[in-house]
Design goal:
Elements lengths: L4 H28 L3 H4 E9 L2 E2 L4 E10 L5 E9 L4 E2 L9 E3 L4 E9 L5 E3 L2 E6 L4 E5 L2 E3 L5 E6 L9 E9 L6 E9 L3 E3 L4 E6 L4 E10 L3 E11 L2 E11 L10 E11 L2 E10 L5 E8 L4 E2 L6 E6 L4 E9 L5 E9 L5 E9 L5 H5 L35 H20 L1 H10 L1
Parallel strand pairs: 2-11
Antiparallel strand pairs: 1-3, 3-7, 4-6, 4-9, 5-7, 8-11, 9-10, 12-13, 13-17, 14-16, 14-18, 15-17, 18-19, 20-21, 21-25, 22-24, 22-26, 23-25, 26-27
Length: 424
């Protein structure tokens, strides 16, 4: 019996080839018969800027592609406004043919002469042979401006002294802005920065700008914030009142614990100077003013820097013949180098009696002079001064106390008991 399997396989293979050829022919015929509208596809749409502000000018760009295998003739391209003004509506009155697989771009200039909202201008292609292509483009108009706020500013400005103002610049818009620049202006105002450039701000982004301001009088300080939305320039303005006055936070010198000692015509003033202000003081010096005359060894006492709530002791020596009081002068500078001075009147009647009576007395060995020098008294475990410096007071007291203790122990019989214990 003959075997016919190879012939059957050959017939099946030929049938498959025939079906593939028919499919290709049908596809080619179908592609050749595709309408021009079906061949044109919108591949990309770009609106710049992303969000227009009222009055802004922007662009709408539409990209198309011929997905077919034959060229498509295009008569014209338009963008119908639908609420958005189109500036160059006659640009594409004559287009031409787009070849198979090729792309083409159409850019229209639009202007947002309308209220805030979302608008849908229609892109329209008029095909030469027959048909058309339409595509709606969403365009958003939103006029929210960037926000400018004061982060840090003093309530009052010392006249002709620099102070710092810090601003916050934020972008609450849906689209980004660029070229953000902050410029301060105002009559009687000087700034160490003529402007601060912040650059681009993405949606919901915030940046800070710091200015060193010097005001000569009470006035208004205006910050002009310029920025671009696309190619459109906009401005946001912030006005800050500037009041000239003394600052409660400035360094404030307080003198206390003043003591006066006199020896002949020499006067010594000692005490403490405290910075009661909220800012640091620099180059703090203590001296005396007329009618007193500063004298050695401490004509001027240099304290140096004093932080807020910090203090330092001082000692000043002077002469003031015939004066009943002395002006104590405290000089200091703030962080900007401006010099201040405060005066405290010290009565000479407050001088200690022992100090006034002593003339040329010397301190006991081992005690320092310093602010307390020249005063009589008795230090702990020391000796009496002013005439009694050679008497060993402490030693005498210890001997007396020891003798009293021995007598008391003898009377109570403690000494006999102790002696008996030693014998045992």
């Amino acid at each position: 019996m003959p075997y016919h399997a190879p012939e059957a396989e050959r017939m099946m293979r030929n049938l498959c080839i025939l079906l593939l050829l028919l499919s290709a022919i049908v596809g080619a015929v179908s592609a050749a018969n595709a309408s021009a509208e079906e061949q044109i596809a919108v591949t990309d749409v770009t609106v710049n800027p992303e969000t227009l502000m009222r009055g802004d000018t922007g662009t709408v760009t539409v990209d198309i592609k011929n997905t077919g295998e034959t060229g498509v003739a295009i008569s014209r391209a338009e963008l119908y406004p639908n609420g958005i003004a189109v500036v160059n509506d006659k640009t594409y009155d004559s287009v031409g043919t787009i070849g198979p697989g090729n792309t083409m771009s159409f850019t229209f200039t639009v202007r947002a002469d309308t209220a805030d909202g979302i608008y849908y201008p229609t892109f329209y292609l008029d095909l030469r042979d027959s048909g058309s292509v339409r595509y709606s483009v969403p365009v958003t108009v939103e006029s929210t401006e960037i926000q400018v706020n004061v982060v840090d500013a003093p309530e009052t400005f010392p006249a002709n002294s620099e102070d710092t103002i810090v601003l916050s610049v934020g972008n609450p818009r849906e689209g980004s802005v660029s070229g953000v620049t902050v410029t301060p202006t105002g009559e009687g105002i000087r700034s160490t920065q003529t402007a601060v450039f912040l650059g681009a701000l993405a949606p919901d982004e915030e940046k800070s700008a710091s200015f060193r301001i010097l005001a000569s009088r009470s006035t208004e300080l205006t910050f002009d914030v310029s920025y671009r939305n696309g190619n459109n320039e906009h401005h946001a303005v912030l006005t800050v009142p500037v009041e000239i006055g003394e600052r409660a936070v400035a360094p404030d010198m307080v003198v206390n614990n003043i003591e006066v000692s006199q020896s002949g015509g020499a006067i010594t003033l000692t005490g403490d100077v405290t910075n009661a202000g909220l800012e640091d003081a620099y180059s703090v010096k203590v001296t005396v003013d007329d009618p007193a005359t500063p004298t050695d060894p401490y004509p001027v006492y240099v304290v140096g820097g004093l932080e807020s709530d910090d203090f330092s002791s001082f000692e000043v020596t002077c002469s003031a013949e015939g004066a009943s009081s002395i002006p104590l002068l405290v000089q200091y500078k703030d962080e900007n180098g401006k010099t201040f001075s405060e005066t405290v009147t010290v009565s000479l009647s407050s001088a200690g009696q022992a100090s006034q009576a002593g003339t040329g007395s010397t301190m006991p060995s081992g005690m320092s002079g310093g602010p307390q020098g020249g005063r009589g008294g008795m230090g702990m475990f020391g000796s009496f001064g002013s005439g009694f410096s050679q008497i060993p007071v402490v030693e005498i007291l210890l001997v007396i106390i020891g003798g009293v203790a021995v007598v008391a122990a003898w009377r109570k019989g403690y000494l006999g008991k102790i002696r008996e214990r030693f014998h045992k």
